[in-house]
From TrEMBL:
Cofactor(s) in the UniProt record: Mg(2+); Mn(2+)
EC number(s) reported in the record: 6.3.4.13
GO molecular function terms listed in the Swiss-Prot or TrEMBL record: ATP binding; metal ion binding; phosphoribosylamine-glycine ligase activity
Keywords: ATP-binding, Ligase, Nucleotide-binding, Purine biosynthesis
Phylogenetic placement of the source organism: Bacteria, Bacillati, Actinomycetota, Actinomycetes, Micrococcales
Entry protein name: Phosphoribosylamine--glycine ligase
Pathway assignment: Purine metabolism; IMP biosynthesis via de novo pathway; N(1)-(5-phospho-D-ribosyl)glycinamide from 5-phospho-alpha-D-ribose 1-diphosphate: step 2/2
Amino acid sequence: MRALVIGSGAREHAIVRGLLGDPDVTQVDAAPGNPGIAAVAECHPLPDLTDGAAVADLARSLGSDLVVVGPEAPLVAGVADAVRDAGIAAFGPSAEAAQLEGSKAFAKEIMAAADVPTARSYVCADADEARAALGATGAPYVVKDDGLAAGKGVVVTDSLDAALEHAAGCFAGGGTIVIEEFLSGPEVSLFCITDGATVRPLAPAQDFKRARDGDEGPNTGGMGAYSPLPWAPDDLVDDVVARIAQPTIDEMRRRGTPFAGVLYVGLALTPAGPRVIEFNARFGDPETQVVLARLRTPLGALLRAAADGTLEDLPPLVWQDDAAVTVVIASEGYPAAPRTGDVISGADGEGSDAAYLLHAGTARDDAGSLVSSGGRVLSAVGVGTDLAAARAAAYEVVAGVQLRGSHHRTDIAQAAADGTLTVPTA
């Protein structure tokens, strides 16, 4: 099988790495990819990731058997539809189904129809409606841009003025917002692979969205993650599939817009049980980096089964017992104003199975030097017998990278490794 991966981030690098580990995958291509991906796979120019016709033409010219669409914007734009219309298998939902991520209001509508446990919410179109909804929920205030915002369209604050300011910014862009009641408890990400009928959950992970240690600072696209979750309830995955993922997939199919791909279920483990914070229509970044590091089932076979509608026939997924931790190395000024163009040293080489780098915001300058090209530059991945060992491996990789002004969190997976993280009870 020849696979084409669409995207250029560390998530796509992790997917490429996983596909290369599948003995039935004969070649992996990426578009546009990045320097880290280019070291292990063939990269192809793709000026516009949302151009479905261009992606389909590229896949056809390469003889691709499977196209894996990484980011959300191409999915919402219908890239997977264009690939399927060209007669090529695509891993990723249709544009209609991807509205589960493309519109938070739509996702709430689906959750209500499927009786999925989530936060009470209000869809608001102007400042008066927003102020009334914020009064109804009270602090902490949760304000979400209804559309795609690269993981940074959400504000959680105790300040009414800050909540209204974020709402005003969303309205200024012509959008609507969703205001929700705050959900307390630790957050968990669970990726569910589905062919539109069958659901196969992957291992749960936890990510860290705030820029600085102790969950301080602004929201980011994610500063690190780990898996497994030794503190989580033993029945968590089965419970989420039964009460959240499967009912959602069933409702989408009932509406005539089946969802095939990966349903990212973002959860809060509240005292009343798991509640959905958000749905995404693709693998999450940085959680993918640790989840795929632990997966032993061949990735190509798994994604192809979801694309072909044969997931039910696949044997049970196999996982390694080892833990995985990833730490994001971010550029100076991220997330507000990332500095780019600085030379990176210590990031070449493939590493080992237990400690390696995945590229995200990297590029080659005219001299061929590796330079930063985005906010989240690299993901350092460590694998070990437990979270403490995995943390040590990941941070050793971080220590080997030099990038002017870069920053990273030092507390990724620390509480879980120390055994101080617990699930609140009613």
